[in-house]
Amino acid sequence: MADTLEFNEIYQEVKGSMNDGRLRLSRQGVIFKNSKTGKVDNIQASELAEGVWRRVALGHGLKLLTKNGHVYKYDGFRESEFDKLSEFFKAHYRLELAEKDLCVKGWNWGTVRFGGQLLSFDIGEQPVFEIPLSNVSQCTTGKNEVTLEFHQNDDAEVSLMEVRFYVPPTQEDGVDPVEAFAQNVLSKADVIQATGDAICIFRELQCLTPRGRYDIRIYPTFLHLHGKTFDYKIPYTTVLRLFLLPHKDQRQMFFVISLDPPIKQGQTRYHFLILLFSKDEDISLTLNMNEEEVEKRFEGRLTKNMSGSLYEMVSRVMKALVNRKITVPGNFQGHSGAQCITCSYKASSGLLYPLERGFIYVHKPPVHIRFDEISFVNFARGTTTTRSFDFEIETKQGTQYTFSSIEREEYGKLFDFVNAKKLNIKNRGLKEGMKQSYDEYADSDEDQHDAYLERMKEEGKIREENANDSSDGSGEETDESFNPGEEDDDVAEEFDSNASASSTSGDGDSDRDEKKPAKKAKVAKDRRPRKKQLESKKGKDPQAPKRPMSAYMLWLNANRERIKSEHPGISVTDLSRRAGELWKAMAKDKKEEWDRKAEEARRDYERAMKEYGVGSRAEGSRTERSKKKKKKQEKRARGKGERRGGGSRAPPATKSPAKGTSDSFKSKEFVSSDESSSAESKKEDSEEEGAASPAPSSEESASPSD
Predict the structure, then answer these.
(1) How far is Cα 540 from Cα 208, in angstroms, rounded to an integer?
(2) Of 384, 402, 383, 382, which Cα lies nearest the Cα of 392?
């Protein structure tokens, strides 16, 4: 028989994951080399206590138990290799390779056996599954129930995290089966044991995540959170960072502990432990150690007897035991003077703290983002209101965080902070436009100067004066724009679709005829001034005097360069904001000096406008009269041409005179309607035909109205 056996493509089960490797059996022992990591496991032949052959998912497997209680599992054997292995074990290790099959009935009621560092759940004589107790991280008990939690295996895609066992009550006196079960697990499990007395205890501390009130027991190597429902043991080695953050109300303090790996409560993981303290709460603390031990262990960072605010004592003890610095907010100050910004994240309101090396948001859910993780930040308009904006952060891994509903007053402070930290701002080119857009919606408080509001008032006054100037020039024409003898043709052409309705009107009273021209006059008034106003806007006279500046604008023009020199590189909007603050803080007597200058400028402007208005109105009146005369001549010439052409165009019928009108006035419409009628015109007397036949009568009747 050979002295060695070698097997390739054998899998070793370690903490739930299968590691591919090579297995070699020799006289001296068993050696397994991991193909991925190169790690070698060596089991001496003298340490082997038992060997079991069984059928598993990957074919057949070999389980080896050592005398000190360790278990090794190797899978991937073929069924034909059992005889060869059995003989090798008999010859070199003097062990019988036992054959045991696993129970596959699917039952969940059986017996638990503890053998060395292995928990075996059996149904009858067949094992169902086995749990290495070294994988157990936590063991908790309840009424007739024991819960085992396991260490997370980062190498496995899917990990078993928790198993619960129901332990039925027994009639034996003095023995609690649940406690006996837990003690067997804890004796072999890799569980943090609360051995000895705690260094100190903090009672009933308010915890935000996980929510509730907990007693915190401080041990030399771990932190024990004891609540009404859950207990957590947190090794100090899992603490990454400590934060001490003041609340916005300046009456409370957050103490944040960052954990990796996180603590678990069912399926929920808590990466941060957040404690909330009141600044007014004090405590006197005595450490459960003598002074020599305190001095030797903490080297002056702690003393046996301490007193002060509760949050100071907790943070001081944690800093000494964890041996990590406590991060506090830097020199950032928001609009209200606080070191944080109120915002919302995932529909929950909280506080965002800009730190020296990152951002942290508390409290639901807590988020910590380091500057070196950030790809870029973005300032976006609020989706629901213009009084707020959103602050977006995208990490280099592509994760995006959106902090919304930030007050617009915080924009300048936050932008300056981000810019000073040299973070990549996605919409840097739009910052001026954003600042201006927020100013546009600013409230016009009387006690605060608003440069944008001043500018809007100035522009409004200019528009009003332009409208007044245009109305002065076109007022007379607008009043006289309607004349029945002149405007009848134009109005009828524009509203030809309504001509037939009024052409066949019969006997009507004179009131109806008087109301119709009034309706046309209203249309003319609505259209003409608008056209004139557009013309006045297009052709603004460059010789007109300029509007006078307000007292603030005069002061700003005189001090603009001084403000720029005091703040190099200041933007336009920041300059306006700074100027508004200076103007608001200026003494009343100094403001009166600029008010006098503004009053003098206004009087000069009014004097110049009077002189300008006399000349412009005289020239405008001559121009309007010449245009009016030319227009009348064009209409007369057009009317003569239509009559000579035989009336080929359909006659407008917007105005039909009533019967019984005097013979001295006969319009073109009346003549056309009489000629077009057939039967009725023959019955009419000769006097009416004689009065309607001459064509020049309409021209003669139109001339007096001109």
Answers:
(1) 67
(2) 402
* Greatest Cα-to-Cα distance within the chain, rounded to the nearest angstrom: 154
In order of 53, 74, 121, 193, the CA distances from 56 in angstroms are 10, 10, 16, 35
**3-state SS, residue 547:** coil
Q: pLDDT at residue 107 above 70?
A: yes
Task: Give burial (CB, 10 Å; 0-12/13-18/19+) of 633.
Answer: exposed
Split at pLDDT 50, 70, 90, the class of 103 is confident
Phi first, then psi: give them for residue 584, nearest 5 degrees.
-65, -35
Instruction: Determine what percent of the chain is predicted with pLDDT higher than 90.
Output: 15
Between 57-71, 315-329, 688-702, the lowest mean confidence (pLDDT) is in: 688-702
Which is more confident, 433 or 619? 619
Residue 333 reports pLDDT greater than 70: yes
DSSP per residue, 493-555: HHTGGGHHHHHT--S--HHHHHHHHHHHHHHHHHHHHHHHHHHHHHT--TTSPPPPPPHHHHH
Cα separation, 346 vs 336, whole angstroms: 24
Please identify which residue in the block is written with the tokens 């015109």. 681
Domain 4-99 class? mainly beta
* pLDDT at residue number 467: 65
Q: What's phi and psi for 90, nearest 5 deg?
A: -65, -40
For residues 256 and 272, is the Cβ–Cβ distance under 8 A?
yes
Averaged pLDDT, 397-422: 90
* CATH code that applies to domain 341-421: 2.30.29.30
Strands 118-123, 5-14: parallel, antiparallel or unpaired by DSSP? unpaired
Query: What residues does 129 pair with on adjacent strands?
Result: 121
Distance, in Å, from the CA atom of 449 to the CA atom of 433, rounded to the nearest integer, reads: 20
Q: Taking the domains of the chain in order of start, what are their residue ranges?
A: 4-99, 111-187, 200-324, 341-421, 551-565+572-602
Cα gap 379→381, rounded to integer Å:
7
> What 3 state SS string does 319-354 have?
HHHHCCCEECCCCCCCCCCCCCEEEEECCEEEEEEE
User: How far, in Å, CA of 160 to CA of 411, rounded?
Assistant: 47
Strands 305-309, 282-286: parallel, antiparallel or unpaired by DSSP? antiparallel
Identify whether 92 is preceded by a cis peptide bond (ω within 30 of 0).
no
What the block records as the tokens of 665 is 């006035």
- CATH class held by domain 111-187: mainly beta
Three-class secondary structure of residue 649 per DSSP: coil
Letter for the amino acid at 481? S
How far is 289 from 198, CA to CA, in rounded Å? Answer: 9
Evaluate whether the domain defined by 200-324 bears CATH number 2.30.29.150.
yes
Position 452 scores a pLDDT of 66
Model confidence band, residue 241 (pLDDT cutoffs 50, 70, 90): very high
pTM, entire model: 0.45
Fold matches, 4-99 and 341-421: yes
- Determine the angle formed by the axes of helices 588-644 and 697-705, rounding to 10 degrees: 160
pLDDT tens digit string along 335-374? 888 999 999 998 889 999 999 999 999 978 999 999 999 9
pLDDT at 640: 66
Cis peptide leading into 329, omega within 30 of 0?
no
d(CA 355, CA 472): 64
Q: How far is CA 191 from each of CA 138, 154, 233, rounded to the nearest angstrom?
A: 6, 19, 9
Residues in the chain: 706
